[in-house]
Design a protein that fits this description.
mainly beta, 11 strands
């Protein structure tokens, strides 16, 4: 993924915060040597606006590299502290859109599972409650649309456009929980054993809501997924 001009991805900016649409394929931070990430791109952008001053960019939350969607960054320590408080207290609301494979037997539900991360494989799995190192994961979903697809690799060829509300933020949470519920994400090479390998991960952080850290105004930003599976 190549970004020609980071300004094309900025949704909102003032002296305290910057909101952008992260494209799929770009890491938020600490990309591999020789590749770009959102942190470096945005810091370079800020530095060009105020030459000679070391740019401040507070990372409040992250999206996995293959996931696109809305991100908010803090532009000073005060804003970062307030946004981090909102994040830890559940005041920042995130809504995702995903395309899943398989028949959705339940059109809307709340999923509660215990997930354990395996650092060696950079993956997570559903485990029983009480497992050492496991964390509780909660999300709710609703199926917005269902159709038959020639790209479908499951016997029923069925796909679903799903809206997902996150109550917790665990490692690979949406991908793991939806796969465990029998609706793995299209393009998920890690948790969808039947994916065909040709499509990108169909997951987008489509809406982000929070309170402005200084003005206290309620802010909400929404993007339309541009991934090929959504088109």
């Amino acid at each position: 993924m190549w970004i020609k001009d980071i300004r094309d991805y900025i949704l909102y900016e003032d002296k305290d915060i910057l909101v952008c649409h992260k494209p799929a394929g770009i890491a938020v931070q600490n990309a591999r040597v020789g590749s770009v990430d959102m942190e470096s791109l945005l810091k370079n952008y800020i530095a060009q606006k105020v030459p000679g001053k070391i740019p401040y960019l507070g990372i409040i939350h992250r999206l996995d590299q293959p996931v696109e969607g809305v991100l908010v960054f803090a532009l000073n320590p005060k804003a970062a502290a307030d946004l981090n408080r909102q994040m830890t207290t559940g005041k920042i609301k995130k809504v995702y859109l995903a395309i899943t494979e398989g028949h959705a037997q339940v059109k809307s539900a709340k999923l509660v599972n215990w997930l354990k991360k395996d650092n060696r494989t950079n993956s997570s799995a559903v485990v029983t409650e009480g497992t050492v190192g496991a964390k509780k994961a909660i999300l709710s979903y609703e199926v917005l649309k269902t159709w038959k697809s020639e790209e479908g690799v499951r016997d029923d060829g069925e796909r679903n456009l799903v809206r997902i509300y996150l109550d917790t933020g665990r490692h690979h949470q949406i991908r793991v929980q939806m796969a465990y519920a029998g609706m793995p994400l299209v393009g998920d090479r890690k948790y969808n054993p039947c994916q065909n390998g040709r499509e990108p991960l169909a997951l987008c952080s489509a809406k982000l809501g929070f309170w402005h850290p200084v003005t206290k105004k309620q802010m909400e930003f929404q993007v339309k997924p541009v991934g090929s599976a959504f088109l």
